[in-house]
Amino acid sequence: ADMPLRITVIGTGYLGAVHAAGMAELGHEVLGVDVDERKVDTLNQGRAPFFEPGLEPLLERHVGSGRLRFTTSFAEAGEFGDVHFLCVGTPQQPGGRGADLRYVDAAIDALAPHLHRPALIAGKSTVPVGTAERLTARLAAAAPAMEEVHLAWNPEFLREGFAVEDTLRPDRLVLGVTSRADAAVLEQVYAKVLHAGTPLVVTDMPTAELVKVAANSFLATKISFINAMAEVCEAAGADVVQLSEALSYDERIGGKFLRAGLGFGGGCLPKDIRAFTTRAAELGAHEALNFLREVDEVNMRRRSRVVDLVRELLGGSVLGAKVAVLGAAFKPNTDDVRDSPALNVAATLHLAGSQVVVHDPQANANAAAKFPTLSYADTAAEAVAGADVVVLATEWEQFTSMDPFELEQQVAYRRIVDARNALEPQRWADAGWAYRGMGRPVPTATIPPSIERLVSVTSSTAVRQLPAGT
Ligand code: UDX
């Protein structure tokens, strides 16, 4: 049953590169395909073109053994593969809310003319429901061996930062197929994963397409639910972190994805809920997903809230203030800055006239490519040097483990916005910091802060009176 197959993976981004390495790890012979020559070169050296924990060792091992290689040639891919996984991006349409399917279409168009023998194309990209049906027609028009070339949909649920783990040990496998034989091919691909007891759902293609966007919509809704509670907590003087903990003990609710803070970002959740709403409207089911617009709006309001808290700590204006933004990636353990809440906050503060210095342990380069007008520091110490206020925007471990007494040696003023609720408020207040969390009461210091560094945060005039470093 564990017969190795010849597999191609089309698109070597965060999803495809990990999938290709994962397929090799499962024992298959794998050819990754990308139009980006530099990426292909990097991968062929066994190196990861982006930061993803655990990916590079896999690439090294399997590129080294010859089981995994990469090419820019679709002709080679068509010749090589028994199964072709489609892993290209489906970003948000420029200037729209729907999914931009140009890369999916281009991949099918590039591959189809080279399919001269039986093959299964398995879509992994997140697409609007109905895309697989449309691609089937597109393939039929272009593939010489069409009766022998089938399409299936096999959505991917991996999380960045845990992508290798999620690929090799997924929560479930979902196969959208048009025949039992096609399901059998994919079951052969995943034989090792299935032997490990991974739940399997075999269904039709539209359902498989929907599972992915439904899952991401649910996750986004859960985050926005707790962030909506944070807004109510702010109005009522309650603490959303304790509220969330109390909710989490109800197993029907569960504690995962119930962390209030700066909200969700990344290449998936934000664009997926927008594309889903758009697709539902096209299908005449717009009412069903109206709530996802609210989910999006609650999420975006958290970014404004952080900017407001910075302004409040600065006594009313951010103009000219030095703001250290710790974090640029949309979450820790990735260098991905797509729709990053951290960078959105940094850019907004910059536009409002503050001097923003950003530091991220992995994402500085990607951030600088997107927001070249912001300043970037190589170290956290450099970013916070002389800062009027610090914003913890991405909860990297090196930020959440910061010590208030160490940090105070570096900043001009002890003011911090903990946009991810990642710090212990009382500890920072007791160390003399003006602390603001998300949906949490302002902690009051039980120990009086040292006099000379005390800064009034309620007066709008007292803010920048003290020289830096006093
Ligand atoms: C997500 C899905 O989890 C994954 O299954 C799917 O395949 C792709 O989209 P990913 O985008 O890698 O994965 O990130 P995820 O870990 O889900 O986090 C998404 C965002 O939500 C991050 O910005 C994170 O900071 C935020 N988040 C997460 C919260 O604000 N609160 C939480 O409680 C959890």
In short:
The chain is α/β, with parallel strands linked by helices. The protein has 19 helices and 14 strands.
Main attributes of the structure:
UDP-glucose 6-dehydrogenase; 470 residues; NAD; 42% helix; Rossmann fold; six-stranded parallel beta sheet; disordered C terminus; alpha/beta; binds uridine-5'-diphosphate-xylopyranose; 3 domains; UDPglc_DH_bac; 19 helices; N-(1-d-carboxylethyl)-l-norvaline Dehydrogenase, domain 2
What structural class do helix, strand and pairing data support? alpha/beta
CATH class of the largest domain: Alpha Beta
The assembly state of the depicted protein chains is single chain
User: Segments where pLDDT lies below 50 for 5+ residues?
Assistant: 456-470
Estimated share of beta-strand residues: 5-15%
- Spell out the CATH superfamily of the largest domain: NAD(P)-binding Rossmann-like Domain
CATH topology of the largest domain: Rossmann fold
As a percent range, the share of helical residues equals 40-55%
Shape: elongated
Q: Strands across the major sheet, in which order?
A: 3-2-1-4-5-6
Main β-sheet description = 6 strands, parallel
Q: What is the CATH architecture annotation of the largest domain? A: 3-Layer(aba) Sandwich
Termini distance? 71 Å
Bound molecules: uridine-5'-diphosphate-xylopyranose
How many discrete structural domains?
3
Radius of gyration: 25 Å
Rounded average pLDDT: 94
Number of helices: 19
Based on DSSP secondary structure assignment, what is the total number of beta strands?
Answer: 14
Family: Belongs to the UDP-glucose/GDP-mannose dehydrogenase family.
EC number: 1.1.1.22
InterPro entries: 6-PGluconate_DH-like_C_sf, NAD(P)-bd_dom_sf, UDP-Glc/GDP-Man, UDP-Glc/GDP-Man_DH_C, UDP-Glc/GDP-Man_DH_C_sf, UDP-Glc/GDP-Man_DH_dimer, UDP-Glc/GDP-Man_DH_N, UDPglc_DH_bac
Pathway: Nucleotide-sugar biosynthesis; UDP-alpha-D-glucuronate biosynthesis; UDP-alpha-D-glucuronate from UDP-alpha-D-glucose: step 1/1
